[in-house]
DNA sequence: CCTTTCAAGCGAACCGGTTCGACGATCCGG
DNA sequence: CCGGATCGTCGAACCGGTTCGCTTGAAAGG
């Protein structure tokens, strides 16, 4: 069932059918209706490959999501869902690319073989070959995340530095003096994964400003690792009374570890961090956290990409989001740190 | 950068380049190397649209995941991830289709416009227009899930009936006599969503066989709904001592509700169900549950689809999985049901 | 009545690959 | 030395759309 068949049955030429469909030239009402009738009758739809070949656009965008770890986190799902939906409203399909390793096979497929008109990159690293590579090629892409040199890029990002710092200040304001940081897995931190690096940086800086005693940890993306990490924290420094985490997958394990160590949240121990709102509300007590607006970020990324596709020479734009901390139930004033090994004095209970 | 350019620079014809690349006819070592050098130098990759047009295959499969609710569950992410990875090993890309509503726009795009060679359908309903429609068209697709008439279909499914029944028997064996069922949201149940229907059926039948007192509930896919649902359960029948759930997103809320009602898990109340293993391990105490092998299901679905694409007239195949219940920490012997309103006798503590 | 204008439609070329039939060169056996 | 098989390569057609330039017929204008 191709356009030639339609043309034959409607008694017109192929080009007339094409123009009737696209509206790029005038077609008399009479023939338009005749064509439309045939199309409806046969249920014809123009072949996407042929169309893509002819006009050089595939109406597809690539969503490059990476081999971040051995599995995916809930946040990624929110991104994927919102990107797909936003793309659909613009009549674009979304092609998933399982990996983002530079010069990787599947990456080559997307770009080299021109399967997509543009791409959205997830899981950005501070020094990201993929971003640099695409920028050098002038290939339309939008990053969900921000590299170390975001000046001339298109991206929508989260200010992880500010967010982690806000968490620290929140804890400091509650009187906590000894806190820990539970980061994403070590490999991610080492490879310069943006949120891990910037989060750590914001945490460290804000803690220094407030004169807090800190320890920082990396933690696998699963509950068991979270629990182990928490045990390590209490072992290394029993006086710890609070922690900040970026690791939503470990959250359940962290809570379990606290329960088993008899640290009641938030009476004995405060927990906060940067996670997707849905996760924050899943744990008990619900997590006071900077909620990652994944849905909004995905939508905005698509919007930026659409803009860029429409006007290839537009000047780079970006959105840096700083969601507020949602006060829930997992943080409270510092009480007796540890097992009363330290007096209950919170020297600088500011603000 | 197209095949003609390569041909020109290598001093051969376009067809020779094509044959050198595909190997479908012999090309002398000499010219092959000459061509390869040019290709490497220019970084040429054949255009996917043109190739798809020429040989009628897109090397893309569609993953139809539906507007199940207002958001996606963790399980879906696991499916998506495993499907994408499995497809990649077969040199296939995955196109995401946000919806599965029959005769829906995005569905039409995938099939009508021939963007994909085959499809994997998620979130199957017992009477599923999509499946029927595709079957009528003879379009290669594999369902993750099983309709009411799975005889001549390609699918990989979970025996939700057996799984829910196993949960019930597990609880009955522990002496529980009054249990509840927490299903997915009501709209899903009403529209004939497979797991909701079959799970409910298995629960009901097994409970009847064991002579248990039951109540069944639908529950929104989020923690707040889970908590509300649990409160309702205890309000309706305080003697309830256990529940079975299919709703992993509500799990956190259920636990919270239990904690607030002072029902200790598993001492006072047992919880079990059918959820992804990762979620089961996130809550405390960890959930005794039939772990949904999402990763395996996605992989098998892709394998079936590949088989079907290779041999269009192959006879339908399927996999019905019945994962065992993983004993963790959320179930235990029935103690004093409710607040000791009922004596602690478990009349039929069968094997 | 003759020219100009314009709407409507047609044919051909093109997008970038794949594939089929043909053709010249080389090699072999008789 | 000739005839047929084999190898390597080429040209052309094709996949199913889009788009440009041209033709035609009718209406409008002088």
TrEMBL record, chains A, B:
Alphabetized InterPro entries for the sequence = Cro/C1-type_HTH (IPR001387), HTH_LacI (IPR000843), LacI/GalR-like_sensor (IPR046335), Lambda_DNA-bd_dom_sf (IPR010982), Peripla_BP_I (IPR028082)
Disordered, as annotated region: 330-351
Tell me which UniProt keywords the record has, alphabetically: DNA-binding, Transcription, Transcription regulation
Q: Where would I find the HTH lacI-type domain in this sequence?
A: 1-55
Highest taxon of source? Bacteria
- State if Lyase is listed as a keyword: no
Recorded GO terms, molecular function?
DNA-binding transcription factor activity; transcription cis-regulatory region binding
Q: Does the keyword Transcription regulation apply?
A: yes
Annotated HTH cro/C1-type domain residues: 5-45
What protein does this entry describe?
Answer: DNA-binding LacI/PurR family transcriptional regulator
Organism this protein belongs to: Streptomyces candidus
